[in-house]
Amino acid sequence: MAALFTGKVLMANRERDEVETERELGLALENKVLLLYFGSGQCPRCRQFSPLLKDFFLRLTDEFYVERASQLVLVYVSRDETEEQQSAFLRTMPKRWLAVPFGDALQRELELRFAVSEVPAVVVLKPNGEVIVGNAVEEIRRMGPACFRNWQEAAELVDRNFLLAEDFDDWTRRSITDPIRRLKYKLDKKMTEAKNKERKEEGEESS
């Protein structure tokens, strides 16, 4: 998948970080289904669809909904008129989204490569760059997160439990610390509950 972005730069949403080296891109995109979202914050149809896509993405990747984030990455390809409009739109979207920098020639290259003529459009790609769905907008509207299982099977993803090397990379550490924090929270919660139980028992004994 990184070959699609060789020599290019992607931006991490709401951060100054650039994902530009082949190693960084490889680790960010490897063994994942890639969604290319062609849209605009000013397009009426996009304004209707973007909240659905946001919810779709969060339900597959956010710890509030799932224990382990799905093997899914999204790159926003903007049709916004200004960089400020693009930034304003991205601030309302999940932090895990990546984006093509505003005004980058890669935007037009991707539009031509995947024959995108109107927005919103969501191109679904295998890790090797092959197209799974040319435009999944209606599928996402109709099926919601359930359609990811079909894409996952089509992409023949390797179980990432075996991809231990990525656990030590700075880029992926941002996401893998989530379950660690969640585990710590669970342990702290159990300790608090145990202490409260002890206090309650001590109170009952003294009375």
UniProtKB/TrEMBL annotation:
Any one GO cellular component localisation term in the record? mitochondrion
Recorded hits in InterPro entries, A to Z, give:
RdCVF, Thioredoxin-like_fold, Thioredoxin-like_sf, Thioredoxin_domain
What single Pfam family name could you report for this chain, choosing any that match? Answer: Thioredoxin_8
Superkingdom of origin organism: Eukaryota
Every Thioredoxin domain range: 1-163
PANTHER family linked to this entry: NUCLEOREDOXIN-LIKE PROTEIN 1
Q: Any idea what this protein is called?
A: NXNL1 protein
Q: Which organism is it from?
A: Fregata magnificens
